[in-house]
């Protein structure tokens, strides 16, 4: 009978410890899940806010300078001597200079995901940040928002994108439509995001510190409870 009582006690203790451990792990998982979801939503919200308030206005201004018919003609003949090209390039560059844009440029589809630069207002002709008429890029190598603006015909907001060449940027992509509302190209503005990245890092570090403290406190409580459970069962056994 004593052996059966001991086995029953050990079984009850194991069951109770399992339930306590399960609750602790479940609670810990929930806390981490909330932290991850909150962080993602925070980054998304901040990124969208920055893009819409700082990159969207230059795009809207630049769109007003684009003549769809002339743009479509230029994207096909790639005539760098066309007065429309030189005049509009200077106008886009002026918009870039007046705003927070690091890069302001237009593109048209060559084939598939390969696009040509058409009018680049990111720099003066021949400048370090200038892309010549006809230079190509594969948008499959870019963030999805760039291609999506062309395929859906709607304005798209990018995420924080970091490259060795350009650093951290946030972009807005808008479709260029002809008179038939067909998408004939895209226009984009990239703004610097280094300060935003630093702010996000500081927020994440703060949240990680908070969660770490919370987990540490929870672990202390968990170990305390488990220790009490062991003592209670030990006392019960000694009484028996």
Give the low-pLDDT segments: none
Total helix count? 5
Helix residue percentage = 55-70%
User: What is the CA-CA span between the terminal residues?
Assistant: 11 Å
The percentage of residues in β strands lies in 15-25%
Using the alpha-carbon principal axes, give the shape.
elongated
Count of spatially separate domains: 1
Tell me the number of strands: 7
Rounded mean pLDDT score: 83
Query: What CATH architecture label applies?
Result: 2-Layer Sandwich
Corresponding CATH superfamily: PAS domain
CATH topology: Beta-Lactamase
State the major sheet: 7 strands, antiparallel
Radius of gyration: 30 Å
User: For this structure, what is the CATH class?
Assistant: Alpha Beta
Secondary-structure class? alpha+beta
- Order of SSEs, N→C? HHHEEEHEEEEH
Describe this structure in words.
This protein is of the alpha+beta class. It has a single domain (1-240), classed as 2-Layer Sandwich (Beta-Lactamase), CATH 3.30.450.20. The protein has five helices and seven strands. It has helices spanning 2-65, 68-77, 83-98, 144-152, 194-239; strands at residues 101-111, 114-120, 136-138, 156-157, 161-163, 167-177, 183-192. Strands 1, 2, 3, 4, 5, 6 and 7 form a seven-stranded antiparallel β-sheet that branches. A hairpin with a 2-residue loop joins strand 1 (101-111) and strand 2 (114-120). The chain is elongated and about 95 Å long. The chain starts with a helix and ends with a helix. The model has no long low-confidence stretch (mean pLDDT 83).
């Amino acid at each position: 009978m004593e052996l059966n009582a001991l086995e029953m006690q050990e079984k009850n203790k194991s069951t109770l410890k399992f339930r306590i451990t399960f609750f602790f792990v479940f609670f810990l998982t929930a806390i981490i899940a909330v932290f991850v979801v909150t962080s993602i939503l925070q980054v998304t919200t901040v990124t969208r806010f920055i893009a819409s308030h700082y990159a969207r206005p230059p795009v809207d201004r630049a769109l007003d300078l684009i003549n769809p018919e002339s743009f479509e003609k230029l994207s096909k003949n790639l005539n760098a001597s066309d007065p429309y090209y030189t005049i509009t390039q200077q106008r886009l560059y002026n918009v870039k200079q007046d705003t927070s844009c690091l890069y302001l440029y237009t593109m048209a589809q060559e084939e598939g995901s390969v696009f040509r630069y058409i009018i680049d207002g990111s720099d003066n002709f021949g400048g370090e940040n200038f892309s010549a008429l006809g230079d190509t890029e594969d948008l499959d190598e870019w963030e999805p928002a760039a291609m999506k603006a062309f395929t859906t015909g709607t304005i798209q907001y990018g995420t924080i994108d970091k490259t060795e060449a350009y650093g951290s940027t946030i972009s807005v992509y808008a479709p260029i439509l002809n008179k038939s509302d067909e998408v004939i190209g895209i226009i984009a503005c990239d703004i610097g995001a280094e300060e935003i990245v630093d702010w996000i890092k500081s927020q994440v570090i703060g949240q990680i510190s908070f969660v770490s403290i919370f987990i540490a406190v929870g672990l202390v409580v968990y170990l305390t409870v488990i220790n009490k459970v062991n003592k209670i069962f030990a006392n019960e056994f000694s009484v028996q």
